[in-house]
Amino acid sequence: QVQLVESGGGLVQAGGSLRLSCAGSGRTFSGYDMGWFRQAPGKEREFVAAISWSGADTYYTDSVKGRFTISRDYDKNTVYLQMNNLKPEDTAVYYCAADGSRLGIATMKSRNMDYWGTGTLVTVSS
Q1: Which of 44, 78, 95, 96 has the fewest CB atoms in 10 Å of its CB?
Q2: Rounded to an integer, what is the distance from CA 109 to the centroid of its chain?
Q3: CB-neighbour burial class of residue 50 (10 A; exposed 0-12, middle 13-18, buried 19+)
Q4: Beta bridge pairs of residue 7
Q5: Cα gap 28→93, rounded to integer Å
Q6: Long-range own/partner contacts, residues 39-48 (CB < 8 A, 24 or more apart)
Q7: Between vectors from CA 65 to CA 59 and to CA 70, what angle results, nearest 5°?
């Protein structure tokens, strides 16, 4: 069974940091572009960040540039999202996802992903 499992969410004060992890199992995701998305209460899911299958390229939505960093560990089949200087508007359920099309990470926000995790909740208090 192929799974993506997120962890690392929690409650943090504004200005604080969290590191989310997304562990893959059931197959290797080394050939997949990986992304992080989030869904805030009452809002649609939105793209946050992506990393290419090679690890050479990353892409971020404007609101998190300079604060969030996406990375991956091929040995652990895991993708990370380091989130610094968190703001209340970052509060959401964060999901990781995998895309095997290799169509380019800049367009990931408008593509269907092959696999999704079940999400981890991040709450940022003011």
Answers
A1: 44
A2: 12
A3: buried
A4: 21
A5: 24
A6: 39/92, 39/93, 39/95, 39/119, 40/89, 40/91, 40/92, 41/91, 41/92, 43/92, 45/95, 46/109, 47/108, 47/109, 48/81, 48/94
A7: 50
Integer Cα distance of 17 and 12 in angstroms: 7
45: its two tokens:
């899911």
Give me 116's structure tokens: 């999704």
Could you report the per-residue pLDDT of 7-52, keeping only the tens digit for each?
A: 999 999 999 999 999 999 999 999 999 999 999 999 999 999 999 9
For the CA atoms of the chain, what is the radius of gyration? Answer: 13
What does each C-alpha distance from 83 to 9, 28, 67, 117 come to in angstroms? 10, 25, 6, 18
Tokens of 125: 């208090």
